[in-house]
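Figure 6 in text form: structure in, sequence out.
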């Protein structure tokens, strides 16, 4: 006598098969582990893409740092040429922007054939200092010890400040000025030029330079090939900015005075917005009129005993 067994999950073998098939959904329609695994795949891909992006960013940052660390000295030379409109150049550069050397050259600017080079090489070192850079320059012929500059970049601005110095900063032969072209190449000056500064700094903002403090250029024991009298005298040319100049914001005041000598020079003007303006008056010291008469005719327009020259 045979007995029949009823399948509790359905009729026949088809019902049993359905009973033992894995379910793709859990209780109350919740996602199964199989569904969770499939959903993890896009997240894994996103993490992998992000990792590749971070690796690429790290490689680019490393390349940038390598370029900065080993940047050639010619980069600094290009920056100086651009800032001076091609009048002050560094040629025959060696080393990097952090430790390099070169030759300082004065020129008449783009297209000019006039150029003069200082004897001996100028060397420099640069290091990060706070939020800026500290630049130290040395030149046996012309710099008094060590010239220290602080370079401070900012958002839409750039500042160069000269560190305080006990006496003068630099000194070079007046003949170097012939590289600037006319009228210096005609005058062929002798003597020397000495530079000093007081709280001097330059700020580049809104596409122009703005000066603070005072810069003095002393022309000592000046002589010229256009005059038989030597020396002609010693003079001080001062550039005053900010509160020192007592002028408008962004405008530097220019002053020329005579320290001593047979040729007496006095001048004043301004430089900043628009074209520079400068008026020079030249006279001869008592008893030197005959010796300086021809030179006074060359300097400017004669007004009796005076010779007047104007720019702007």
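Output sequence:
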């Amino acid at each position: 006598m045979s007995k029949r067994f009823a399948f509790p999950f359905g009729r026949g073998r088809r019902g049993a098969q359905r009973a033992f098939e894995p379910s793709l959904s859990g209780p109350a329609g919740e996602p199964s582990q199989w569904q969770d695994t499939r959903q993890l795949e896009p997240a894994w891909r996103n993490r992998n893409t992000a990792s590749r992006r971070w690796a690429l960013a790290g490689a680019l940052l490393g390349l940038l740092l390598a370029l900065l660390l080993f940047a050639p000295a010619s980069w600094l030379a290009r920056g100086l040429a651009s800032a001076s409109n091609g009048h002050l150049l560094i040629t025959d550069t060696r080393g990097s922007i952090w430790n390099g050397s070169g030759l300082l050259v004065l020129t008449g600017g783009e297209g000019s054939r006039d150029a003069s080079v200082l004897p001996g090489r100028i060397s420099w070192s640069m290091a990060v200092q706070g939020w800026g850079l500290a630049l130290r320059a040395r030149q046996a012929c012309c710099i008094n010890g060590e010239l220290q500059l602080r370079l401070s970049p900012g958002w839409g601005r750039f500042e160069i400040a000269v560190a305080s110095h006990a006496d003068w900063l630099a000194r070079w032969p007046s003949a170097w000025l012939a590289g600037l072209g006319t009228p210096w190449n005609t005058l062929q000056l002798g003597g020397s030029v000495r530079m000093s500064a007081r709280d001097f700094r330059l700020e580049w903002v809104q596409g122009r330079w703005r000066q603070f403090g005072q810069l003095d250029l002393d022309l000592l024991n000046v002589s010229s090939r256009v005059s038989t009298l030597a020396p002609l005298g010693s003079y001080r040319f001062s550039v005053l900015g900010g509160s020192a100049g007592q002028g408008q914001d962004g405008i530097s005041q220019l002053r020329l005075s005579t320290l001593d000598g047979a040729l007496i020079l006095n001048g004043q003007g301004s430089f900043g917005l628009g074209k520079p303006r400068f008026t020079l008056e030249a006279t001869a010291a008592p008893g030197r009129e005959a010796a300086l008469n021809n030179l006074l005719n060359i300097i400017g327009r004669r007004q009796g005993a005076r010779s007047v020259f104007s720019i702007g």
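Caption detail: Residues 1-25 have pLDDT under 50 and may be disordered.
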